[in-house]
Specification:
single chain, alpha+beta, Immunoglobulin-like, about 55% helix
């Protein structure tokens, strides 16, 4: 690599205690030629940097770094070489980001530089505490230069899955979640349990929080193609038998009078059971209506909270607690609505059951007069004689027999 400025040189030299470490650091930074022990790959990377091939040098240092990271155990010399390679890779990507005119590509290069400096700090590849402090300063500067933005995604369903696709970026989330994204253009694809998919495109600017809200439509029930093609067999027409001969009008009237005179009052059990079902069903319908009204009220409050949260996020505010409170209000509204629908449905079914029970309750058998009529002797019942029959007179033709309808 080329010689850094005198300020950076003095800063790095102040981190090293012994002269031997100073010489090794200068060799690793490219101030002096490589000595024995340095691989040819390291020399090629430094040569690419001297030729102003920043991107090729960064990739070369990455390949050189993989040779050490693939080992299961590193010696002290290997750890020292890894630390030098991490700093060099970080420096190459920062310089490549400065030369990149496009913002989203420059942010991606800075993110790669940030990844290597974080690995340098977490792996403790530094030799002195001063080197660690300087690495932390570089990390903070890179994060500030990237300008991560907070993006909150509201899918509208707790089991919906969202995928975020961007330049060299892939992320996933479920329900309502928050991500830190670098500047650029992203496509968010939300998948719902009923196989519905929605997609939206957003443009993320540096240090500008955003709120992305999806509004899924209700599922529309469709008839499967197999059921549409199914043929319905023709209905079978059953021919009715000829009805039995009707009784005479006088016999019908007499029978109706006898039945009405001996009809018992309605059963007490029938009245109690019917009104119990009707009353319980009516109460459940009222409770269901109250629950639905509460659900509408809570839903309106949740919509107002969502609008307030959106304004907070646009002004730089908002937090995860506000989002959780919004989700709780939405869940409460859904629970009240479902409870109201269930209570109303059960109440309506109870009312209908009471009506059906009242109409289908079995009538008790008649007593008294019907029983007496059934004990008449058979010789008192004579069939009617038609006037056209031989030997019939007018008095016999006008006689109507008394028929007992108590038993069949």
């Amino acid at each position: 690599m080329s010689n850094p400025t005198s300020t950076n040189l003095s800063r790095w030299l102040s981190f090293v205690a012994s002269p031997c470490l100073r010489v090794a650091l200068l060799v690793g930074c490219g101030l002096f030629p490589s000595v024995a022990g340095a691989t040819s790959t390291d020399s090629e990377c430094k040569q690419l940097y001297r030729q102003k091939k920043i991107w090729e040098a960064a990739q070369c240092f990455e390949d050189y770094l993989r040779q050490f990271l693939s080992k299961s155990k590193l010696s002290a010399e290997d750890r020292y070489q890894v630390g030098l390679a991490l700093r060099n890779t970080n420096l190459m990507y920062r310089k490549a980001a400065k030369r990149e005119p496009k913002v989203f590509k420059a942010s991606f290069l800075r993110e790669k530089a940030l990844r290597y400096i974080k690995l340098y700090i977490s792996g403790k590849y530094y030799a002195t505490p001063s080197q660690r402090r300087y690495a932390v300063v570089i990390r903070d500067r890179i994060e500030q230069a990237i300008g991560y933005a907070q993006v909150t995604v509201l899918t509208g369903h707790p089991r919906a899955t969202a995928r975020i696709l961007g330049y060299q970026y892939k992320g996933t989330g479920q329900g309502t979640f928050t991500l830190q994204l670098r500047p650029g253009t992203y496509t968010v694809v939300a998948s719902y349990p009923n196989a519905t998919t929605l997609a939206r495109s957003i443009s993320v600017k540096p240090n500008a929080p955003q709120l992305l809200t999806f509004q899924p439509s209700r599922r529309v029930a469709t008839i499967p193609p197999k059921l549409r093609q199914r043929k319905v067999p023709p209905r079978k027409v059953v021919q009715r038998r000829s009805p039995p001969p009707r009784r005479t009008d006088v016999a019908k009237k007499e029978a109706n009078k006898l039945v009405q005179a001996t009809r018992p009052p309605p059963s007490r059990s029938r009245t109690i059971a019917t009104w119990t079902l009707v009353g319980t069903g009516g109460a459940l319908v009222v409770v269901g209506s109250v629950l639905v009204g509460l659900a509408v009220n809570v839903n309106n409050n949740a919509n107002n909270s969502e609008n307030g949260l959106r304004q907070k996020i646009q002004t730089g505010g908002g937090s995860v607690e506000d989002t959780r409170a919004l989700l709780q209000e939405q869940a409460q509204a859904n629970g009240l609505l479902q409870g109201g629908v269930v209570a109303g449905s059960v109440g309506l079914a109870a009312v209908l059951s009471g009506v059906v029970l009242w109409s289908t309750w079995p009538q008790p058998k008649a007593s008294s007069s019907l029983g007496q009529a059934s004990t008449l002797r058979k010789d008192n019942v004579r069939p009617p004689v038609h006037p056209s029959q031989p030997g019939a007179d007018s008095s016999e033709a006008s006689v109507v027999p008394v028929v007992s309808y108590g038993g069949r």
